[in-house]
Amino acid sequence: MSRHYAGRVRSGRNEPLPEPSTLRERLTALRNVPPFLLSIWRTSRWLAIASVVLRLLRAVLPVATLYVGKLIIDEVTHLLRAGGVHEGVAAWFGNGMLHHLWMLLALEFTLAVSADLLGRVAAMCDALLTELYSNSTSVRLMEHAASLDLEDFEDADLQDRLDRARRQVAGRSMLLSQLLGQMQDSITIVSFAVGLLVYAPWLIVLLLVALVPSFAGEMHFNAQSYAVNFQWTPERRELDYLRMVGASAQTAKEVKSFGLNRFLIDRYAELSQSIYRANRRVAFRRAGWGGVFTTIGTIGYYAAYAMVAFRTVRGDFSIGDLTFLAASFRRLRNLLESLLTGFSQVAGQAMYLDDLFSFFRIQPEILSPANPRPFPASLREGIAFEDVGFRYPGAERWAVRHLTFTLRAGEVLALVGENGAGKTTLVKLLSRLYDPDEGRILLDGHPLAEYDLAQLRAHIGVIFQDYVRYYFTASDNIAVGRIEARDDDARIADAARRSIADAVIARLPKGYAQMLGKFFKEGIDLSGGEWQKIAIARAYMRDAQLLVLDEPTSALDARSEFEVFQRFKELSSGRSAVIISHRFSTVRMADRIIVMRHGQISEIGSHEQLLAADGHYAELFELQAAGYR
Ligand SMILES: Nc1ncnc2c1ncn2[C@@H]1O[C@H](COP(=O)(O)OP(=O)(O)OP(=O)(O)O)[C@@H](O)[C@H]1O
């Protein structure tokens, strides 16, 4: 086990249990139930109606069945008193005396069959509805996540919330059947209560009082489970991460060669054991107290039962009444118990809904204006940075500051500078993945924020240095640059030609239809440079007026790099481009070069001008050139 981590892992044993939220908080979580029901309703009206109606019908069946049972017993007692029936079974149908009993039996049979059928169909409706709801909520989650800012994704709290929301979408399946079950049980309870009120109203009160401790206990432990769950979300996300690192194609190479498996497995075991211990404590206490509280409820039931038995002996009730009352009380007790515990479970689950709904409430800040300015067909003035400064959320240091320069229309601009100088940050600001904290960025004289966000991004083709290797086909891997043109084979082939990915694809057994990566069956992995050529092709898929390539050639061999740039220069005539590179062979091909240092611009000029100025650029260039001599 790593000592690094030892301090961070909480010892489940010594950690005090999380404070459960107050009863009021738990009850206010119920406010999430109406919106939840509304989304169920929107998911499928017909299934929702069917489910409710079936349960309504099902709800009154138990009392009806018990009552018919009582009538049967009374009828049998009556027949016995009248001297009984002495013929064989065959005479049943012919004997007029038995007609009534026969009808009652048939009725109870029909009720029993209906109860079973209704229950099954209702359960089926619930299951279908739940799956539909889970699917549509997952889609909504994805859509909402897609609308959020990059900043939100870099926030660990949001990741935690998203994680809980995701898990809850699957877990929420319980809530619907629980709520509907609650409704059904309530109606059944009312129907029993009406029947029992006639006989012994105060016994119902006795039952209710006996169930209060059980209810309170459930509420308490549900809140505690939620609190444990809430507190351990980061660790559970870490578990997922460890599982992924320990067993994925991307990481296997490094994990094996560094011999990291033992470390990962130990870390996983240690973390999961801590989570287990926290859960176990709640489970133990829940089981212990639950047992005590249920016994109190049972005592209430038997007290009521004894009373009814006593009054039957006294002659107040018939035998039929006794069976009806005893069974009704038993059912009522079970129903009340499940209603009360169910209620506290619903309240508990409503707390999880909080995560889902609060995730949906997060709003992106980088938005399109209400009346966006039309995007120019071609850039005239270019893009001007005016004293732009930006600090990452939560960071104290400015990532970039006082950036003032103009990227002229049709110009190829290179950004150079040491690691962490702020080059990528500049590109993120340019494509409005972030908005500046200071200064402004003008596109043809107007702030970026005045243009439609989707249009802006459509006109700027950015390939980041940590571009994604999609486990899609080669063709789709290029098409992601403009996914609307996914079926436009000619366009895809053209983009591949420009980035010299065509030669890579020609060597693949299935050409453009080849699945890439080792994630799916028949996938083929590419070399780093080959992947990069594919990624560069994405930029050419767009009708971008501005191409931004962040270290586009870092993995390319010298010949490929030269070729990529030759084509780039030929084909990008009239378009602007920003190229970030640490390779001076690439940089020197740019029209102008911006040298960045500690988040600021230290020099601007052409390769020759900057060499002549003998400043930071000249120094960096010399360093690299010396390496080749
Ligand atoms: N998402 C982020 N959150 C917080 N700080 C960040 C984030 N991304 C970058 N930074 C910080 O901002 C500064 C500028 O980073 P940036 O990625 O722009 O550098 P760069 O010049 O592109 O570096 P490199 O040559 O290594 O790619 C760095 O100090 C970095 O640590």
Automatic annotation (TrEMBL):
Location, primary (coarse class): membrane
Transmembrane segments: 187-212
Region annotation Disordered: where it falls in the sequence: 1-20
Classification via InterPro entries: AAA+_ATPase, ABC1_TM_dom, ABC1_TM_sf, ABC_transporter-like_ATP-bd, ABC_transporter-like_CS, P-loop_NTPase, Type_1_exporter
Compositional bias (Basic residues): 1-11
UniProt-listed PANTHER family: ATP-BINDING CASSETTE SUB-FAMILY B MEMBER 10, MITOCHONDRIAL, ATP-DEPENDENT PERMEASE MDL1, MITOCHONDRIAL
Protein name: ABC transporter ATP-binding protein
Lineage: Bacteria, Pseudomonadati, Pseudomonadota, Gammaproteobacteria, Lysobacterales
